[in-house]
Each structure stands twice: as structure tokens, then as C-alpha cells.
Amino acid sequence: MPIAELQVYAVEEADVAGGVCLVRCVGGTARSGQVYAAGESRVWLRGMERYGRAVDSFGAGHTARVRLAGAVVALLSRGQVLTSVPPEGHGLAELEAWLATGPPLADEPPPRTLRSLAVGGMQDERLPDGVRLRWGRVALEAAYRCAAAEGASDLVRGIELAFVRGYLVREFGPGRGGDPAALCREALALIDLTPAEAAERARDWRELPRERIVHLRLIRNLLRWTGAARPYLAPGDPSAEALEAWRRVVPRLP
Description:
Elements: E1 5-15, E2 18-27, E3 29-31, E4 35-38, E5 41-50, E6 53-55, E7 57-59, E8 63-69, E9 81-85, H1 92-101, H2 111-122, H3 129-150, H4 154-172, H5 180-189, H6 195-202, H7 210-226, H8 238-249
Antiparallel strand pairs: 1-2, 1-9, 2-8, 3-7, 4-5, 4-9, 5-6, 5-8
Helix pairs in contact: 1-3, 2-3, 3-4, 4-5, 4-7, 5-8, 6-8
């Protein structure tokens, strides 16, 4: 079954059996009968209509009013992304086993879909903390796979990882959420400019070649996600001093 993703615009009606939502297809093709993951829960796509007419499917970039079965429909929020899974579903334990040992997995999710599914679970505040942390570990593995599949640079890969690691540290603190010092140290090691050099380039950044503008923006994004770990660094930590220097430069970056 092809992978599809739906982003929720609004939950228009809902009860213990399901409800009606306005959604936008952001990937693949949505079809009646598909099963979608909402964190650890599942919803079933029972029907859809566009412009007041029933349809059997709709593709990426289009919106529709859909009827979903499942009690979790009432808890869906605006902006939440639902990812289609096989009828039996990709459970968290199944994905963990697959990532650890590589057993066959029906309808194996591509890296970006795996990342979307894992980040959704990691950020789902209705789930127990332990489950969210497990989804976070899956999200980290998905970030590595995305970088490898897309041939991403070390800096782009660092941003993907810093987003997940920074979120976990912010939500769960040091220890359970990871090592803030390691996150900052490894992120800073990816930056090939000093704060002074970046500030000089940013002075007239609109006149720079496109690749240099993109490079400065990537540095800004990396530091944005790394910032969540900054409050946990020990006094005198070299990374804390470096981040403080970057903090003064970041607002000037494109």
C-alpha cells in the first residue's frame, strides 16, 4: 500500500466512534480503507468528499473532508500529520526491532515517512514519557537514514539530529533527554566559521553568492535547535562560551 500523509486542518465533529475532519494531503494518495497512525493510535479512513461530492481518492496538494473511525479522532489537533500504515500498522516495538536487527517489514517506510511518524510520536504529549522517548530514539535513527538517502551534508544532518536531540533535552532534561554538553560540542564542531567571520559575512549577506547565503542559514538553524541545551551547560564549559558568542551573531544571519 503506498504511503500517504494527511495534515489536519480542523476536526469538525467527533464522538467515541470517530468523526469528520478537514485535511490536506501532503504526500502520496489518500484512499478509502487506508489506516493512519496518530502517535500510537490508529484511525481508519472510511470516506471522503471534495466540493460536496464523494470521491474515492485525492492526491498531494488537495484538501478534502474525510470521515475517520477511531476514538482518537476527537483528540487530533490542527497541523497534526497522519501517516498511512499497513492495515496491521507499524507499531513502535515493531519499528524498534526492525531498526535494530533489520527483519523484513511489510510496506517498509521510506526515511522521511519514518521521521514524520517518529517525530509525531515523540511530540505527542498524550503518550507516556517513556514511549515518547522511545519514539525520539527512532526519530534519531530516521534522521541518519534521511541524510544518507538524500546525500545531505554533515551540516544538514547535524540540523536534523540537533532538532530531535534539542527537543528531547528541552522536554525531559539532561539524562533521560540526552547529554546537553555532547549535543552542543558536536553541533559546534560542524560550524566551519568563527562568530566573527560569520558576522562579517552577514554584514552584506544579500550580496553574497547563493551558496554562502544558504550556508549562513544552515548555521542559524543548527544553533536554533542547539539552544535548548544551553541552559544545562556547566559554568565555564567552553561550549557555553562559544554559544554565547554565537548568540550575539545569530540575529544578524539571514
